[in-house]
Write a structure and sequence with these properties.
This protein has about 200 residues and is mostly helical. The protein has eight helices and no strands. GO terms for molecular function: transferase activity.
Length: about 200
């Protein structure tokens, strides 16, 4: 579903991307702004319990993940291998900030169990990304799994937003879902890579 929505979001953001490119603002700058904004909002609003505002503002900055690619294609400076590496690395920083903000929120509520579940979701998400990066570094494919980054972000931000509106149990349910789905995705990717190595005659 998210892959189907991406073209529509790209069309919406194209005028802004064209304006930034025309002013010489490169994609790496856009990536950095998006990450800094996400980190600040996640660590400022979420621990204080401002969940809806935090989720909304983080969503705005997460859209920079689409915008940096647009700026690169429309002539902005910095579209390069370095830019791709920077984008992937800063994505991990942004993800970690969101989950850390939620962990601090649960700690402030003395909810040790949900803090641990959210931490498990953070670790699982990091392993999902690492498994793909390591596999591709070895010349293999690893674009499989139940919960990739866009799905994880949507679940986390939607659950956080509605929790801020007072919807009961939605945030714990979202964190449990992310922890379980992340663990399943790690296993799926390990199995997928193992299958490829077996086909190549390796053990």
């Amino acid at each position: 579903m998210l892959k189907l929505l991406r073209p529509a979001m790209t069309r919406i953001l194209t005028p802004l991307g064209r304006a930034l490119a025309a002013r010489g603002i490169g994609p790496n700058v856009v990536t950095a702004i998006g990450t800094i904004g996400t980190v600040v909002c996640a660590l400022l609003f979420l621990p204080l319990g401002q969940l809806s505002w935090g989720a909304l503002l983080i969503t705005v900055f997460v859209l920079f993940d689409l915008l940096d690619g647009l700026v690169a294609r429309l002539g902005g400076k910095g579209g390069s291998t370095w830019g791709a590496f920077l984008d992937s690395t800063l994505d991990r920083v942004a993800d970690a900030a969101i989950f850390c903000g939620l962990i601090l929120y649960f700690i402030s509520k003395h909810d040790t169990l949900m803090a641990a579940v959210t931490l498990a979701g953070l670790v699982a998400g990091a392993l999902v990304s690492y498994a793909k990066a390591r596999a591709e570094g070895l010349g293999l494919t690893c674009d499989v799994g139940l919960a990739e980054r866009p799905e994880r972000l949507v679940v986390a931000l939607v659950a956080t937003f509605f929790a801020g509106l007072g919807v009961p149990y939605v945030l714990p349910a979202g964190m449990w879902l992310l922890a379980i789905a992340g663990a399943i995705t790690v296993v799926q990717r390990v199995v997928h890579v193992h299958g490829q190595t077996r086909q190549a005659g390796e053990r």
